[in-house]
Specification:
Layout: E1 3-9, H1 16-29, E2 32-34, E3 38-42, H2 45-60, E4 64-70, H3 78-108, H4 110-113, H5 116-134, H6 142-161, E5 180-183, H7 189-202, E6 207-210, E7 219-220, H8 236-244, H9 249-263, H10 273-285, H11 290-316
Parallel strand pairs: 5-6, 5-7
Antiparallel strand pairs: 1-3, 1-4, 2-3
Helix pairs in contact: 3-5, 3-6, 5-6, 7-11, 9-10, 9-11
């Protein structure tokens, strides 16, 4: 495989804040350092772009920087290089492992089990921490596999403490094609995601109307008396995935994002939540029409699905 190598030098009079800032940036990128201050990342498009931005910053600070492609290192084998990346993540995973153990102890303690919301919030932070580390775990460290397993077990244990929600009836896709749909005006995250789901997976030519007064023949969603709505602790988007048997991993990831923005119960920790939430709020502040909101939402969720599908495919390789 090929590697990206970044090397830089700053003028002696450059301030310590500039040097520390660059070092921290390199740490956040997950770069490992070799002798003579050579920083290495795998040859990926996102890594290349990150190094190129850093090189530009160094040059703006009157320093010198270079980004190189390297096929191999004479003094290190490929497996030894990968081990450096594994070791760089090991300490972070070990810290998460200790925090998971402490939270498991809290869940087992009778005196603390009653505060499930607090435990859920702590679990959300751990999941966020895990997501942050995995973004830098380019070579699927065995430490990460262990932590992921413990997180799943903890999440399952916590869900068993919550009330069991009722099952939902299956819906046949064919029965909902060539139908008119209706939901409340001013669609936000759950309704926008459902509108995209309807147009992408159920009926591309569906008519979707925004009104508080549904017509008798319309399929209602995310509104009073809806055919598809919140079920237990599921948002409408999650309900629709279950009803229609849509189990695409990218759809499940979107469901977690929509759930967290819509319900804010700390059940899921997804890095995309904060950014998407800001965008959606911005659309509302811009006073876009219902149709404009839907158009923007369909484009946004389609792009998100494409990106998350790519991530899922890369993870399966």
């Amino acid at each position: 495989m090929t590697w990206l190598v970044f090397s830089y030098s700053l003028l002696s009079q450059s301030g310590s804040s500039t040097r520390v800032g660059l070092w921290r940036r390199l740490q956040r990128l997950g770069a490992v350092v070799l002798k003579n201050s050579l920083y290495v990342l795998p040859d990926r498009e996102d890594c290349r772009e990150a190094f190129q931005w850093l090189a530009q910053e160094v040059q703006q600070a009157k320093g010198d920087a270079i980004v190189m492609n390297v096929d191999r290192f004479e003094s290190m084998s490929e497996s030894e290089m990968i081990k450096l990346f594994h070791n760089a993540c090991k300490e972070k995973y070990e810290q998460l492992d200790q925090q998971i153990a402490a939270l498991e102890k809290s869940l087992r303690a009778r005196s603390e089990r009653k505060n499930l919301l607090l435990i859920s919030k702590k679990l959300m932070k751990l999941e966020q921490g895990y997501e942050n580390v995995t973004r830098l775990d380019f070579f699927d460290s065995p430490y990460g596999v262990h932590v992921a397993s413990r997180l799943r077990h903890l999440k399952q244990s916590l869900s068993q403490e919550n009330p069991v929600i009722k099952t939902v009836p299956v819906a046949a896709l064919a029965a909902f094609r060539d139908r008119r749909w209706v939901t409340r005006p001013r669609p936000h995250v759950d309704r926008l995601a459902c509108a995209w789901l309807i147009r992408r997976f159920i009926d591309p030519t569906a008519v979707i109307r925004y009104s508080t007064q549904p017509d008798p023949d319309e399929v209602r969603f995310d509104m009073r008396g809806a055919e598809f709505g919140h079920e237990g602790n599921r948002c409408t988007f999650e309900t629709m995935l279950l009803r229609f048997g849509l189990s695409d991993p990218a759809l499940q990831a979107i469901a977690e994002i929509v759930h967290e923005i819509d319900l804010r119960d700390g059940r899921y920790a997804r890095p995309e939540v904060a950014g998407l939430d800001v965008i959606l709020k911005g659309w509302l502040l811009e006073k876009l029409s219902d149709q404009e909101l839907e158009s923007h939402g369909v484009a946004l969720f389609q792009a998100m699905h494409a990106a998350l599908s790519r991530q899922s495919q890369e993870a399966d390789r």
